[in-house]
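Supplementary notes for students who missed Thursday's class. We covered one full example, reproduced here. Read the sequence, then the structure, then the short commentary at the end.
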Amino acid sequence: MTIECRTLFWLGTATLLVLTLYVLSDILLPFVLGAAIAYLLDPLADRLERAGLSRLWATIVITAAFLVIVIAAFLFLVPLLMEQLANFAVRLPGYVQSARDLLLGYAEEWLGDSFSRTESTIR
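Structure (token representation):
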């Protein structure tokens, strides 16, 4: 193979690989995240093994700790989120009115007299 053919082959292979990864990105994301988490938690599992736990029990301890952290985060964040959503619901009519006033001001500025005549015709 000449250098040009070899270059074209590798360029085509790289392009095909990138396109395949792009098409399958939604499917591959959970696997990539899982592999990254496993890679990052492996030293912790090794340390627990050195402390005398089997690999199975080290995995169980890490998983249980993760679940406790997630549950605690939900217990903390859900009430906060509910409070903020309630505040947003209370303030929403004011936001809508402010947006309406702002847009009407811009419309009057841009359209001038024709807007006033159209608005009075509509009413």
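Commentary. The chain is about 95% helix and 0% strand. Residues 1-52 form one domain. If anything here is unclear, bring it to office hours.
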